[in-house]
Amino acid sequence: MRNTSKKHLDNYTFNRQYSTCKPNITTEILNGLLSVPKHLSPKFFYDQKGSELFEKITNQPEYYVTRKEISILQTNCNDIANTITKTPQHNISLLELGSGNSTKVQILLETLRPNTYIPIDISETFLKENTLKLTDAFPWLNIHAISADYCHALPSLPPNLGKKVAFFPGSSIGNFEPAATLSFLKNIAKWIEPTGGLLIGVDLIKSQETLNLAYNDLDGVTAAFNLNILCHINRLTQAGFKPHQFKHKAFFNNAASRIEMHLESTIEQSSVINNQTITFKAGESIHTENSYKYSIDSFSHLAKQAGLKPVKVWTDSENWFSVHYLESI
Ligand SMILES: C[S@@+](CC[C@H](N)C(=O)[O-])C[C@H]1O[C@@H](n2cnc3c(N)ncnc32)[C@H](O)[C@@H]1O
């Protein structure tokens, strides 16, 4: 593993496996914006400002997702650690996909006691800021932060990691389309071979009112987060989008069992990327995110199809959120 930047700390390394300069990022953005309907990958929410706005979302009273998942992890951290370490294993590495501010993993570190923590995130500065903070709190832990795009490929890992346990919280699995979910889970199953596990947070189907409120908080933080994608796209492609000419829309699509987020153009307008013009009619939107909601059974079924064995599921008292532990078969 090559260090591209290193603080003078014995237990911290940083590795970059993602570059925002690649021409294929512009191609990916253009392909989405020239499609009908227009769409952008939710991974483009996360520049530094987007990561900070997401952290603010997690503190909104309407956004139950983080609160519920944290309560499940806190209540069950001993049982989760025992379930993961059921087969005696001295060397555990915890690989967190989309680690963000690394808040949730800290609940698990003391009970699980992995040798190594590998936080992986596309938002590089935010990743470094938050994982460097962990070095003081957990001096016994080796931390290898990796900036990577897990949609592109799961990052290459250093050798001799022992039992690899992937941690994928935040219900980010819900951002994948059903077919992509299956292939992503299959890739994780391969990545953690031969004796690994996956601890994954999965949001559950619940009342439409609760779901709609969670993505339309009264303070407008989710709206600001959604609109910020245009500022990020402007920086990556010089598109010149004017965020104030778009408005946030989020709603539960019952037939597809997903929250949809869109940015609706309030006027007729156009932008140019690489000499290609993207035109908008008034009312036309860019689809920026899907967040699929599952039942425990429907997610366990998908996991089995991907070659992962469901071992245990923990939920909160209202059954709003679930944390599944799956093992490679
Ligand atoms: C919904 S937030 C969840 C953050 C945190 N894990 C939590 O549960 O609160 C998604 C996180 O995944 C990261 N992310 C999104 N798409 C990604 C991708 N394709 N590759 C790597 N990281 C990604 C974001 O930067 C962000 O930190």
Structural summary, described in words:
With 329 residues, this protein is α/β, with parallel strands linked by helices. It has a domain at 54-207 and 293-328: 3-Layer(aba) Sandwich (Rossmann fold). The chain has ten helices and 14 strands. The protein has helices at residues 23-34, 48-57, 64-84, 105-112, 124-132, 134-137, 178-191, 208-214, 221-237, 296-305; strands at 12-16, 38-39, 92-97, 116-121, 142-147, 163-168, 197-203, 246-253, 258-265, 269-273, 276-280, 285-292, 308-315, 321-328. It has an eight-stranded mixed beta sheet with strand order 1-5-4-3-6-7-14-13, sandwiched between helices. Helix 2 packs antiparallel against helix 9 and helix 3 (64-84) runs parallel beside helix 4 (105-112). It is globular. The two termini are 28 Å apart.
Termini separation: 28 Å
Largest sheet composition: 8 strands, mixed
> Looking at CATH, which topology of the domain at 54-207 and 293-328 would you report?
Rossmann fold
Which superfamily, in CATH terms, is the homologous superfamily of the domain at 54-207 and 293-328?
Answer: Vaccinia Virus protein VP39
Mean pLDDT over the residues:
95
Residue stretches low in confidence (pLDDT < 50, at least 5 long) are 1-7
> What portion of residues is helical?
25-40%
Shape: globular
